[in-house]
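Example for tutorial group B:
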């Protein structure tokens, strides 16, 4: 048996069950914790966190092309705001703060399975171009169209964004479970932690300021940290383990 760990960095000891022949973990931080919990290093493989092939397929596609397909302005900087599948957090106040920055950009908001939030967003008076989605399975496309992601530090979302080289403004994290996700992003210069709408808006001003190279630097760092082929790595390791068992 093998275990694929889906906590990005803050690995809970209960992942490390006895009897596994291999543990596949997303990051070096997770591997170090697994060793501290008693695993042998030769049991551990650092694979990255598996993400859908759709993110890989869209990586590198011209953003202008993806935006046109979404009926967005092809040449406007684009910000994607998400709050998980349930549209959690202060999504409305964050969206209003971002829209009030008096800079030129367009905003994509994913309200998730939160019809009240979606209606509230739809009824608001926006001074910038805004596209509002409910729950959608087109996150790979929306990320491919975007220059910046504003989100909480969920492990899958962070891994998907890094796989696409998408810099992040992290609005929050679940204490204990997601501390390490935030730290990986911030320490790796793939994004910043901005816990208030005011701080998020200020970060957006800095990143989209004329002549600023900051956004490109964060995007490059995110791209370098990304592991878009993590799912293939996991599958390859499991296939080799099965092959060894059959040949034993």
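The residue assignment follows.
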């Amino acid at each position: 048996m093998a275990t694929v760990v889906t906590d990005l960095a803050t690995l809970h000891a209960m992942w490390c069950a006895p009897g596994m022949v291999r543990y596949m973990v997303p990051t070096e931080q997770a591997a170090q914790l697994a060793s501290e919990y008693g695993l042998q290093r030769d049991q551990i493989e650092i694979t990255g966190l598996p993400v859908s092939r759709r993110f890989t397929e869209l990586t590198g596609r011209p953003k202008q092309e993806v935006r046109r397909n979404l009926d967005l302005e092809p040449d406007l900087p684009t910000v994607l705001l998400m709050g998980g599948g349930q549209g959690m957090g202060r999504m409305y106040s964050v969206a209003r703060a971002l829209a009030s920055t008096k800079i030129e950009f367009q905003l994509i908001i994913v309200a998730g399975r939160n019809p009240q939030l979606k209606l509230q967003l739809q009824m608001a008076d926006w001074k910038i171009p805004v596209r509002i989605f409910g729950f959608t399975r087109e996150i790979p496309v929306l990320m491919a169209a975007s220059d910046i992601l504003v989100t909480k530090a969920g492990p899958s979302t962070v891994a998907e964004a890094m796989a696409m080289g998408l810099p992040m403004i992290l609005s929050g994290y679940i204490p204990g479970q997601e501390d390490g996700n935030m730290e990986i992003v911030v320490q790796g210069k793939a994004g910043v932690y901005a816990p208030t709408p005011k701080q998020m808006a200020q970060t957006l001003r800095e990143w989209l300021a004329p002549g600023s190279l900051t956004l490109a630097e964060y995007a490059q760092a995110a791209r370098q940290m990304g592991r878009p082929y993590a799912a293939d790595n996991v599958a390859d390791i499991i296939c080799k383990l099965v092959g060894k068992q059959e040949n034993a």
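The chain has eleven helices and nine strands. Compare this with the pattern of hydrophobic and polar residues in the output above.
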